[in-house]
Amino acid sequence: MIALIEQKLCRRRLCNQRPVAHHGFNRESKSPEVNVKRFVAVLILMLSSAAILASAADATKVDGWISDSMCGAKHAGSGAACVKKCINDGMKPVFVDASKKAVWSIDNPDAVKNFYGDHVSVTATLNESTKSVHIDSIAAAK
Fold first, then answer.
1. Please, which residues have CB within 8 angstroms of residue 103's CB and are 6 or more apart in sequence?
2. Predicted TM-score of the model (pTM)
3. What is residue 50's DSSP assignment?
4. Beta 119-127 vs 93-97: how paired, if at all?
5. pLDDT tens, residue order, the chain (142 aa)
6. Cβ neighbourhood burial of 34 (10 Å; 0-12, 13-18, 19+)
7. How far, in Å, CA of 83 to CA of 135, rounded?
8. Whole-angstrom distance, CA of residue 114 vs CA of residue 100
9. φ, ψ for residue 128 (rounded to 5)?
């Protein structure tokens, strides 16, 4: 607002100094390349911020068990040896939600390889349509 008033004063010749020296703007010195670079930098910043916020919004913290695809929720919490044996025999690891006893396939099974049969707390992105989960972080539940 102040800049507009200063510009109007200079146009009406109420200000005795040159606009560049006094008011700090010079329309001739800003090249289109500077404006494009500034626009691209701001655009990249906005898009990366949006991507970070979108991924953080989808992640959910859930407690449960790491089991195997054959046994599922049958022995969640009581059969760590069976889970390890079944996974070593070719079954895939799954996540069993502690509250709903729902069984979810794991998109990134390497993330849970140290927690077979354990009660865990995970931060994950759930995909309801495929009944799968992508583990972002995992820790032993307290």
1. 67, 72, 73, 94, 95, 96, 97, 131
2. 0.58
3. H
4. unpaired
5. 666 666 666 665 555 555 555 555 555 555 667 788 888 889 898 888 877 766 555 678 889 999 998 888 776 666 788 888 889 999 999 999 888 888 999 999 899 989 988 899 998 888 888 898 999 899 988 7
6. exposed
7. 18
8. 24
9. -65, -35
SS3 category, 129? coil
Type of residue at 94: V
By the 8 A CB rule, do 41 and 48 touch?
no
Q: Are 121 and 95 in contact (CB under 8 A)?
A: no
Q: Is the dihedral of CA 131, 101, 141, 59 positive or negative?
A: positive
Calculate the alpha carbon distances from 80 to 31, 68, 86, 133, 135 in Å: 67, 10, 10, 21, 20
d(CA 79, CA 99): 18
- 70 touches 96 (CB < 8 A): no
CA distance 120 to 64: 5
The span from the CA of 9 to the CA of 2, in Å, is: 11
